[in-house]
Amino acid sequence: MTSYTDKGEKHEQGKFVCFDHLTFWVGNAKQAASYYCTKLGFEPLAYRGLETGSRDVVSHVVKQGKIIYVFTSALNPGNKEMGDHLVKHGDGVKDVAFTVENCDFLVEKARERGAIIIKEPHVVEDKFGRVKLAVLQTYGDTTHTFVERAGYNGLFLPGFHAPLFCDPFLAKLPSGKLDFIDHVVGNQSDNEMVPIVEWYQRNLLFHRFWSVDDKQLQTEYSALRSIVVANYEETVKMPINEPAMGKRKSQIQEYVEYYGGAGVQHIAMNTSDIITAVSKPQGLVLEISNLCLRLLKQTRMPEETSPSLHLMAHHRNSELALPIYSKCMVHIF
Ligand SMILES: [Fe+2]
After folding, report:
1. Ligand 1 centroid vs 252 CA: distance in angstroms?
2. pTM
3. For residue 170, which phi and psi values (nearest 5 degrees)?
4. I want to staple 60 with a disulfide (CB 3.0 to 4.6 A). Which of 33, 96, 130, 285 is the partner?
5. In what residue span(s) does the VOC domain sit (predicted)?
C-alpha cells in the first residue's frame, strides 16, 4: 500500500465539498427505492413524476444520514438513452453528484483541460430557492453532476416534491445506522486505471490519496490494482480499479464484462456502529458476504477504525478487509 502526502494543485476558486447524491437508472424506480428503504433503513425524501409535472422520467429519492440515492426510470416507451443504458448495463449508477462551491469556475477549469461537458452550468429554481447544476462525462457511461446549492431550502432539488406515499410498514422498522458515503469505486478495463486517474487529476484537480498494486491486493485467485483519488480536502474519495492477473479471472474483469464496460462497482457507507448495523434484529436486512461474516466473528475491531458498510453492485467481492461487504445488491447474472 502506498499513501501520498502531495495534494497537488488547488483550485484558485471554488471546491468540491462532498458527495451530494448518487443517481441509479433502474427498470422500476418505485420498487428499487422501496427495497433500499426496507432492507437498508433509508426513508423516502422526495419524488418527481407525472403527478408533479415530470412527463419523461419518474424519480424516487431516499435518504439516510447524509446519504441520498435517486432512483430514476423512464416513463415513456422509446426512451432510447435510458433504454439503451438498461439493456447494456442493467440497473446501475448513472451519476455521482458532488456538492460544489463555484460551479462555473470548476466547470471552466475542467473544460480548459479537456473534460467533456454534457450539460453546461444552468440554474434550476422553485419557491425554495436556486441551485446551479452542470454535468460532466467520466468513465464508461457514468457522469458527474456538480451541485451548487447556495442556501437552497427545499427537500432535495427544484422540481422534486414531497413523497406522495409513505409506506406505513417503514415505521415498524428500526432506524438505519448509516451516516455518509465514504467512497464510490469505479471499475475500469485492463490498462484503463491510470488514464482515468489522470482524468481526475487533470480535470478536477483531485490527487492520488492511496494505491495498491496486484502484489499487495490479491486473494489466491483474483487480483486487482487500485488508485484512490480524492479532492483537495479529501472529503470525496474515488477508488479506481483495474484487473490484474491471478490464477483465475480478476473480479474487476468479471465486473467489466457483466456490466458492459467501466462503471461504479460498489458504494461504501460509513457507520459509527457496524455491529448493530448488520446484526439481527435491529440491523440491515440484507445478505452479508459469508467471508465478511467470518471476519466479523474473528475480528475485534480497533477503536480507531472507522467502519464502512460496502454496498456491492454486480459482483461478489472477495477483498480481505475489515469493512463489511454485502452481497450483490444488483444481479444481472
Ligand atoms: Fe470499498
Report:
1. 13
2. 0.89
3. -65, -30
4. 33
5. 18-149, 180-327
Q: Which domains does the chain have, with CATH numbers?
A: 12-172 (3.10.180.10), 178-328 (3.10.180)
Cα–Cα nearest to 147, from 8, 10, 22, 11: 22
The neighbouring-strand residues paired with 229 are: 208, 238
Cα(122) to centroid of ligand 1, in Å? 33
Query: How far apart are alpha carbons 253 and 244 in whole angstroms?
Result: 8
What is the Å distance from ligand 1's center to 151 Cα? Answer: 32
Whole-angstrom distance, CA of residue 267 vs CA of residue 251: 16
Q: pLDDT for 202-248, tens place per residue?
A: 999 999 988 776 565 556 666 778 999 999 999 999 999 999 877 78
Query: Is the per-residue pLDDT at 62 higher than 80?
Result: yes
pLDDT in tens, 2-60: 777 888 889 999 999 999 999 999 999 999 999 999 888 899 999 999 999 999 999 99
Question: Which grid cell sits at 72?
Answer: 430514476
CA quadruple 233, 241, 116, 75: dihedral sign = negative
- Nearest CA to 70 out of 60, 55, 57 is that of 60
